[in-house]
Specification:
The complex is a heterodimer of chains A (67) and B (196).
Chain A lengths: L6 H10 L7 H13 L1 H25 L5
Chain B lengths: L7 H22 L3 H17 L10 H18 L46 H12 L3 H13 L3 H8 L3 H30 L1
Helix pairs in contact in B: 1-2, 1-3, 2-3, 4-7, 5-7, 6-7
Classes of the chains: A mainly alpha (67), B mainly alpha (196).
């Protein structure tokens, strides 16, 4: 189990949750870390923003003429 | 058939402005510059031949880029002309300086609040800065990130296409996102705030 205060590990999990489903253990670890760390909460929100923006851009590129 | 919504002379001029961005995108994914030039040339011929179908619901640039994107996705699916590499951690961006020894964020690298509302991301300038930040990553990192977020492959497909492990793929994407987030914060979100 990683040290609860590791922001580095938290960023690994936040990145990986964009690519795979996290295990129950990983999810609970991350939720607890986020409840304690404002910097990582911002990071989490920003990765979501970037991910959603990329998804919308992909949709537009899939069907550029049906926008 | 309706008449094309763009005059041939405009088409040529805008294509010439767009060409360098198309070529860098193709070079990121293909194993030699000749193949990259070829696929861009084929893209422009397809665009020219299909110009009557272009109804200007998207920008001409987006439309041409979407044609190139499809061609590159097909090359990955056919395992043809693709840039392969040996996974080497030393070739990835160094993200260690972002964290202190105790693995907390370094004060000067900790994420700040982004002032720009999310809706404002839907503009060409944002994507220009975004692409510059992606190209600023080391080549392999930028290739994998672009496969994931622009071409839309999942990490299983990426590791099959590039013959790297999924763990390596996650490591590359983690480093890419750390760097890209910082680059966007510095060059878009904070820069925007200073403009006000």
């Amino acid at each position: 189990m990683k040290k609860m205060s590791s922001c580095k590990h938290a960023t690994e999990l936040m990145s990986q949750k964009q690519d795979r489903e996290l295990s129950f253990k990983e999810q609970t670890w991350l939720i607890t870390h986020l409840s304690l760390c404002a910097n990582c909460r911002r990071f989490n929100k920003q990765l979501d923003i970037i991910g959603k923006a990329c998804e919308e851009r992909r949709e537009e590129l899939e069907n550029p003429e049906t926008k | 058939m309706s008449s094309p919504s763009i005059a041939p002379a405009d088409f040529e001029q805008r294509v010439e402005q767009l060409r360098p961005r198309l070529i860098s995108f193709a070079q990121l994914h293909l194993n030699c510059t000749t193949d990259a030039d070829d696929v861009v040339q084929e893209t422009l011929i397809s665009a020219w031949n299909g110009l009557e179908q272009f109804q200007a619901k998207s920008s001409l640039e987006t439309w041409i880029f979407s044609i190139l994107r499809h061609k590159i996705i097909d090359l990955y699916r056919n395992h043809s002309k693709i840039q392969l590499f040996e996974y080497d951690e030393n070739q990835l961006p160094d993200t260690a300086p972002l964290f202190q020894e105790d693995q907390h964020w370094q004060k000067e690298h900790a994420p700040s609040t982004w002032p720009t509302p999310y809706k404002e991301l839907e503009n060409e300038h944002f994507w220009h800065v975004f692409d510059l930040c992606v190209f600023h990553l080391p080549p392999q990192t930028s290739q994998v990130f672009s496969m994931r977020e622009l071409l839309g492959f999942d990490t299983k497909q990426i590791c099959q296409a590039l013959q790297i492990s999924e763990e390596n793929c996650w490591t590359i994407l983690h480093r890419a996102r750390l760097k890209l987030r910082a680059c966007l914060e510095q060059n878009w979100f904070i820069a925007e705030e200073n403009k006000l």
